[in-house]
Give the backbone structure.
Amino acid sequence: MRSRRHAVILPILLILCMFAGRTAAQDEQWLQYRSANEASQIVGDMRYLYQTPGTSAPEGIKLPDFACDEPMFQRWETPMVESGGLWIAFDRTTKHGLHDRLYIDSNGDGDLSDESPYEPYRRDSYRCYFGPVKVLFEGEDGPITYHLSVEFYSSRDYHRCYIRPAAWYEGPVVVDGQKKHCVLLDYNVNGAFNDKSANFSECDRIRIGKEDERDTRYVGNYIEVDDKLYGTEIAQDGAFVVLTKADDVPYGTVRLADNITAFAVGGANGLFVRKPEDGTVKLPVGKYRIDYWTIVRKDDKGSRWELRGSGFSAAEGSFTVSQDKEAKLEIGEPVYSRATMRKSGSNYTFGQSLEGRHGERIAMTRSGSRPRPPKLRIKNKDGTYDRAMSFEYG
């Protein structure tokens, strides 16, 4: 009887596993890989890394026969390779010119001597632009392609290396029966597309909406689409996304000043933009950091004035949302006008800025534009010098 039971159950299990496999495959919505020089001008919301390259050759790395006596080296950090990074070398084809040749350990084998060099696709008096620079990561199903844009800047004894993504993923996805357009961006420039972080510069970016929209959100555990919450699973290499309705997520309450008109926070849960009602907003339980707040008013002439606070430090802008206790944030007004003075020889330089109560940056607009800058009046003790001057933007 036991053998017969196994004989009956085994085909059933095989059928169930096959069905489950098809279901899982249908949940994975695959995107198309794109690459281009100046990719940030095409899709926007791309960060860059900048570092000072060194002259010391990396240990354990095989090097090509350089044309110059002063090659420079830069390591690009990425979790996509076992060593945690790939080495880049810059060579110079003329004695006193720019470093105009690039080598990269494209397959992570610790060998630059077998790599073909890249020549600049564009250059000026101080810069050489290389790209798209191709690298290959080893994935479970084979090699994974990724591209970088690399800029090498030289001015006398000053050198800088700027590294930007030259790749992104995009394509159609279906959300609650509706066709949307999805874009994935490697914002922190490390070769992966699924990084989550309360440090906004270290989390990647995702868009789901119309193809021509740029409503960019932080990659996180969730994303809101058409005012509905979805759990997200994003492939590390960016090839697919999985969106699942998040119906049973616990929420908590955050209390703000009554005059806050908009409020945005981010963290491992993603980015949430809220318009408070009666001074409160609801957020999924978790840890967050304030992205920005706004206060909007109209003056007696009908002009729309907006204050926007952003740039919170981790210490001042972080808070936790829980189910059993309301979180209260002391943000918004008052706003302070800061005046600074710097002396250099016989010259004095004055500056003015707006600052929030937690040291955040404040931007003020009137009908969508900056109002005229304030005036500074300087008067000496005996009144022989009395002059009013206007600050200037830029």
